[in-house]
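pasting for the record
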Amino acid sequence: MGWGFIGPRWWRNYLHTHSFFEVCYAFQGQGLFRFAGVDYAVQAGDVFIAKPGVRHEIISSEEDPLGIYFWSYTLYERADAHNAPASGVDALLRAYLASPSVVSARTTAMLRTLELLTEEGTRREPGYLQVVEGLVIKLLLDTARSVVDTSDLCEPLPTPVRTPEEAVTQTIKRYLHDNYARPITMRDLAAQVHLSERHAARLFRKVTGDSIMDYLTRLRLEMAAQLLLDRQARMPIKEIAQACGYPDVRYFTTLFRQRTGLTPALFRQQGGTRFFASSPSLS
């Protein structure tokens, strides 16, 4: 998870999108959050959420400048998620992903968590990484709670009953997640589920709506995007391409640009953000 803050001053970041979730908490001032063409007034104590791929911008008030903490992350379901009993956290995060809410003032515990993250990251005392990990999890769950009616999630969800088609699909997904770094053929996948290549492909599309190879491409590029944004590892782009199943870095670069609108180098430089022409100024 990436995070930081912008001090209370007049600023504007103009229309852009991310390949990940971006969440902002206003600790001071007022402003406007424009999300998917809709304007939302925000003020101190509000949290506002930009989902992946949706155009948005933030405009601080000149009279009462906006100060924010911001953090970003990617959420994706494990390939083996359907094999484990559903938990309250699973239910909360699924409800969060489905929630249409963009702005919330239900943020009682959020500011202190952000302050503790800042303190731990600054002091870096023994054990700070473990503390930060716990605080990051808390921040993610606090964000979900801020836009989800948790009273509907008190009862544990029953383990879903899977159809044979869903079982086959999960086996294929698990194989893709475990092996995306190496060459994968339809013959390999069909062998995992003991079906013909055509039958395996048909069942997968029936359950997911995607072809197997489209799913694999998205998975590989999502993994590549995460590696590109890893500021600690700073892997060369050629190594990232190879680690995600693309031995030809030129092909990887072309495919990544087609899917994201940015080259891998520019994606890294812009922190996963794609900017668009600015919208008209507010009157």
